[in-house]
C-alpha cells in the first residue's frame, strides 16, 4: 500500500535555521522506516484523511545533532496517529 504524507508545516523552537533541511530529511527517513516496519496506524489503514495532527512535544539534549532531532520528531508524529484530529 502506498500513502502520501504531506507535512505542511513543522514548527521547532530553539533550533538553528540551518538545521531545517537535515532535520526534515531525518524526519522523512525515519517516518518511512516506521511505516515500513510497523505498518500503517489504524486511522490511515482505513483510508482516513487526517486534516491536522499535533505531534506533541519531546525532550532533546542540548547540542543534539539534526539527525537525532529528526528521528525524535518522526517518532512523535508517528505515535500521534493514534489520536488525530480528523
Through-space gap between termini = 21 Å
Number of domains: 1
SSE ordering: HHH
Helix content: 40-55%
The low-confidence parts are: none
> How many DSSP helices?
3
Please count the beta strands (DSSP E, at least 2 residues each).
0
Portion in beta strands: under 5%
Shape: elongated
Judged by helices, strands and strand pairing, the structural class is mainly alpha
Overall pLDDT metric: 82
Biggest sheet architecture: none
Radius of gyration: 13 Å
Report on the structure:
There is one protein chain. The chain is mainly α and 86 residues long. The chain has one domain (17-80). 44% of the residues lie in helices and 0% in strands. The protein contains three helices and no strands. The protein has helices spanning 20-38, 42-45, 66-80. Helix 1 crosses helix 3. It is elongated and about 40 Å long. It starts with 19 loop residues before the first helix and ends in a 6-residue tail after the last helix.
